[in-house]
Amino acid sequence: MKRIVVACGSGIATSGLVANKINNLLEERGMVGKARADSIDIKSIDLEIGTADIFVSITPTFDLSNVRIPTFSGIPFLTGIGEEEIMDQIVGLL
User: Which CATH number is 44's domain given?
Assistant: First the structure.
């Protein structure tokens, strides 16, 4: 199963909301059992990135230069603007 890691500052509220939204969208697209999104705090990224296939960041100031997997902004999942396009790209990588 592919793993999507969603990170924010605390790993609770915002990343949890976005991870839940991504999981719901995966379900709508028939991807249950193929991928899942998990929320983490940004400080845990070094521990979690090795088991992730895709990284979604809610923290705009986080330096993504060391992340070697596909990365996406999580902001569209909060605003709804561009959400479908980002989700299409994520599903295309799964």
Answer: 3.40.50.2300
23 is annotated as an active-site residue = no
Catalytic choice (5, 6, 8, 31): 8
Strand, helix or coil at 9?
coil
- The amino acid occupying position 50 is G
| CA–CA–CA angle 8, 4, 47 (5° rounding) | 65
Tens-digit pLDDT profile for residues 42-52: 888 888 888 99
Q: What is the pTM of this model?
A: 0.88
Q: How many domains does the chain have?
A: 1
SS3 of 41-64: the string is: EHHHHHHHHHHCCEEEECCCCCCC
Q: Which domain holds residue 79?
A: 2-93
32 HSE (CA, 13 A, CB side): 5
Q: Are 7 and 60 contacting, i.e. CB atoms less than 8 angstroms apart?
A: no
